[in-house]
Amino acid sequence: MIRLATDVGGTFTDLVGYDEKTGMVFTSKSLTTPQDQSIGVLDVIDRAQSASGLDPDKVRFFAHGGTTVINAITERKGVRTALVTTAGFRDVLEIGRGNRPDLYNLQFHSPEPFIPRKLRTEVRERVGADGRVFEPLNEDDVRQAARLFLEEGVEAVAVIFLHSYAYPDHEKQCAALLRDLLPDVTVCASYEISRQWREYERTNTVALNAYVQPIIQRYFANLEKALAAKGVYSAYYAMLSNGGVATFSQAVASPLTLVESGPSGGAAGAARIGAILGEKDVLYLDVGGTTAKCTLIRDGKPSLDAEYKLEWARTFPGYPVQVPVVDIVEIGSGGGSIAWIDAAGGLRVGPKSAGSVPGPACYGLGGTEPTLTDAKVAIGLLDPVAFAEGAMTLDVELARQAITRLAGPLGLSVDDAAQAMIDVAESNMINALKLVTVQRGHDPRDLALIVSGGAGPMLGARLGRELNAKSIIIPPHSGIFSAWGMLAAHPRADIRKTWFSPLVASSLGELAKLFADMEDEALSYFDLDAKDGIAFSYTVEMRYHGQEHSVSTRFTPLVQLADFAEAFHLAHETAYSFRQPDARIEVTNLHLQAEIAGNVIDCPLIDNDGRTVAKARKGERKVYFGNDGGWKLCAVYDRNGLPCGERLSGPLLVEEPTTTTLVHAGQALEITDRGIMVITEEVR
């Protein structure tokens, strides 16, 4: 049985296949096809067939992650969507939280809603926060709204009523009526996506879900048909933003759960590598062609962001969504990120990217802007001939010509300008890594730093040194690691529910009952009759009386009140640096995580016979280190030939088909018996 995964990124589409019987791993890489991502998926399968002998007939598990959802949202290419809501709440999407994050910007404008006001309709109904019905649903209002939607050519409708998390029956009634009246229109009710409080966040969630639902429905239908034509008949799974996988049909029902599909695959893989190395707490960084993404893994599981916001920035509030998303900090610094000079004469890198078309200047496909990849080619980090498994030859001269456009205004040589571009990008990444560690109460010195992505291993050793990380880990197949991680993910369901209560002894019993009901919901989601083989974990969000926001605390059904309260105090102190032991504690939300354990990809033991350092050495190459010594001669090794147990001192380069790893002077590289590279600082 072969398990196959494809990951569609902004620049490249990656493939990893794993033969469970032999332990053989198939890999492939091709340029992403933005006009139709499924074309790139088929291309990368074709490459794997011709290069590795992949037999599609033997594929029994297929996992897919991509950027279809996030692209449709960020590029505003979703379908024409309407909204039905409680009378008086038509403008919730526009009012939002009423805050202004860019405090001194008097020209600040709130985020533009994805649904225009003329398509936001009100119907008469009213439910209290405790679930009591004050006014029944007026079906005539719903029929009138349906007539408007037909006239306006609406393709999707979002239904959101006040306090429907406590009483969803009105939404069910409205959605059923709309589906009868509008059989060709997608209808999405908020209770199907979120049962949490906060009206603006819930409204935004269902609006965005409806906005992309027809698109993802068509995309998966076309992809499934194309895979079948290719001979890939298997169970089709989508990589979810929570670090798990779901069937295509489950993903279509809630497509917003795919918003960070690709990056969460890397997080699942990092958790798997950490488990193999016995590291439960790791910091993960993925530097791809367009962006750099980082996340923290605690106790063997990626952290989830309870308040995820699309397009959030320091000066922009973004669009909050109430779906489980791995807590990822993402910045526009990848291999294709374009370097430019701002109005003050400062050097910037990203967020604009050259993408796959035309790509960096060194690709020779028409790009002229200097990118991070061009800088790496110019200073010798990349072998121009062996790039992307030899699929293309990089043009060093074109890279240097592009960088010359920056070097002149900056008063630098081409070499120093290229190194300055890398320095700026690394500084951006350090800030992002500190956001998920230092600023959230975690010390990087206690963490191993796992680095992946086509561009990451070239930067990881220096980033780890700057953070004083315990070690820097370069996993196998690191250049296509998100796809690898998709084969390490399990089928998973995250069920969240709002429940208000003071934390007292009697509430512990109620919590246990509520979680038992949520377990039954998970069984229904997986279409199973028994809980055997399902791993459950329970989290309760709590706060001190009078606070606005909550912190998460692990719950066990037999926990004692004093122990549970102390766990909350500790979690609050970690998050906010203080505790209030005498304050009243309130429960706000429950979170059940259900995961089906099963076969996942492994790192097989290396056969060390015939492997020697001498045989693995490919030669030498000069690399420019700027102020750290200028041009230095570095030994170059083939990763697939290095024996385990050897210790090599930097500076050196390790090449593999999808990336290159740089080890600096003063650092040492070791290969574990499973082929994982570990970089540490040498003791002096």
UniProtKB/TrEMBL annotation:
This is Hydantoinase/oxoprolinase family protein. It comes from Aminobacter carboxidus. InterPro entries: ACX-like_C, ATPase_NBD, Hydant_A_N, Hydantoinase_A, Oxoprolinase-like. Residues 4-180 form the Hydantoinase/oxoprolinase N-terminal domain. Residues 510-670 form the Acetophenone carboxylase-like C-terminal domain. Residues 202-494 form the Hydantoinase A/oxoprolinase domain.
